[in-house]
Amino acid sequence: MAKIAKIPKMDGKSLSPQKELGELLKTQFPQVFAEGKVNPDKLKQALGEELDTNNERYGLSWAGKAECFHHIQETTTATLKPIKSESVDFDKTENIFIEGDNLEVLKILQKAYQNKIKMIYIDPPYNTGNDSFIYPDRFKEEKADYEERAGIKDAEGLLTKDGFFRKNSKDAGHFHSNWLSMMYPRLFLAKNLLREDGVIFVSIDDNEVHNLRMIMDEVFGEENFVAQITWKKKTGAGSKINLVFDEHEYVLTYVKSSDAVMKWRIKSEEDGTFRNPDNDTRGSWESCAITAPSSNRNPNQLFAIEIFFNKKVEPSKEDKKGRKLIKTVSYGKHTVVLRELIANDKESYEEYDEKNQHALFIRRWVNTKDSILKLFEQERVYFNGPNLPRYKKFESEYEGKAMRSIYFDDFSTQEGSEDFIKLMGFPFVGYPKPISLNRHLIQIIDNEDIVLDFFAGSCTTAHAVMQLNAEDGGDRKFICVQLAEPCEKESEAFKAGFKTIADIGKERIRRAGKKIKKESSGKLDFDKNKLDLGFKVFRLEESNFKQWRENIKEPEEFKKQLWEMVDNVKKGAAGEDMLFEIILKNSRFDLNVATEKRNYDGIDYYILATEHTEDTEGKKAKDKKVNHGLARINTDFEIVCLDLKITKKFVDKVLAEKPERFTCLDAAFKNNDQLKTNTALQMENAKIEFKVI
Hints:
- This protein is an alpha/beta fold and about 700 residues long.
- The protein folds into 4 domains: about 40 residues, no CATH class; about 325 residues, Vaccinia Virus protein VP39 (Rossmann fold, 3-Layer(aba) Sandwich); about 110 residues, no CATH class; about 150 residues, Udp-n-acetylmuramoylalanyl-d-glutamate--2,6- Diaminopimelate Ligase, Chain: A, domain 1 (3-Layer(aba) Sandwich), CATH 3.40.1390.
- The protein has 19 helices and 30 strands.
- A hairpin with a 2-residue loop joins strand 15 and strand 16.
- Helix 4 packs across helix 17, helix 11 crosses helix 12 and helix 12 packs parallel to helix 14.
- It is globular.
- The chain starts with 16 loop residues before the first helix and ends with a strand.
């Protein structure tokens, strides 16, 4: 009997992490399932935990919490449509702006960006009693669902406040519950996108900081709490609330894994500027004190350093005052001698003999004798006239300083407003965060990492990423998500021609890019590093493929849908739109994968490819620029065909190319089951993953 190939199909739905976890449990712990569902008592027994019959437990509960998990588990068939007309350098940039509800967007990103984001920063609604936001989450992707809730969109297709947003008044019966139900699913899904060494920062004030701490403890684990950073948001006394001046806000900080904590270091402004005035081959350096403060009483760091400039000498075992020799080294053309102290030596003493080019320093030094000598041996100590020597700390070995938990006069909301007005020419509704705050937080990540902000607002985060890259030559990328929230008709933004907050954010990124380019133009580093000041724009839209409707009641309607699904591509769906939907739902790549359109045998198809560097064991290396111990650069690629015809000649071409995966339309085989089956078998033999849509 001939082998029958089972051909997997793309179901068009977003990835469900819970479904994947359930399948893993079925594989590892089949005994915990009863009638297809997990029995919690059996799961505890399988994990070796004692059963707890006491229902009283510590934790946070609210009206609607159970419903949150339904929102998390519900998949979406929506997609992201590329909008090139609103983008800047779409085909070159790796920055991304997504317009749409962030819950749906987070679901769509689950597959393509799982474990890829190094840092998340969000500035969500603070639930002051005047905020309007979506609760509960009612966003659906199908047009029929919109029509059921007439009035949700206006004539131009924009969301309306009354139909989509609701003001969460403090008089509401579920005031805190509404906010928690909005935040919890988003934080839950966001965690899946973080790398294991990733970090999330959430701005908040006193209205919900207590509740936010508890839900973040639940989502990220209280052991992964790092800090509740406090910063003074106003230069003056602030508003008077409940007999107290409101002057501060918080940034809650969590890591995905506790192992990541020690990797964070921030280089602050007071840490100095790295330069290379002597063209040291080891790179830029900063001058650091080689002596310890007077408060340091370590006896092992108190000794004399004797220096003979521009000559090699054989020092005596004792100097003329009886100081015994400890050790000596050559330092370039100089000789450095360490000596023990004598009884009448002062702790702070300097002696110069310019004629004989000799100096003596008695001090408490920054380290012990061997470590200080090592600095001389490595030619890291330098002299500036008759002053105390200092040592070089190179930028390449800089680890920075740990973040502070309190910031007094470093940032302010006034600064944030001024940043925005200078660039845009009108005030932004609310108080945008200052670029300096976001820039400070972003400094913890490496130069090629990704920052996600899914409450993007006026896009301060995007501005800060580009600004910091311009300053230090970094190549950080941003992904910003913002709903098309309508601007109030009375607002300055609306009068300036902006209909939505998303429109404001996109324009800010454009203007910020132009401003940074103008300020950086002509600088050597800018020209060399080819700073990425562009961004791809995507919009949350219905799927390009017809979805099977399960709420059919009449037989005739069922029959009609069967005929409609013969060709499941929606009328008017563009090839590039379908391509990006497949990238998000059915590839190993993300939205920045290189794509190339080709033609063979009269059939159009796309090549998706990305390069990665492998080490000597064949494992993917993080940094393609690092050459130490790396064996080769490999290319992963897939082939996607969206043409409405498939030929045997074309299939042979795909087999010869040997991609990792081949995806095409089911309708392209035009009921040629033999070609379809043979293709599946050939792909299986060639170890090419084959899927139809």
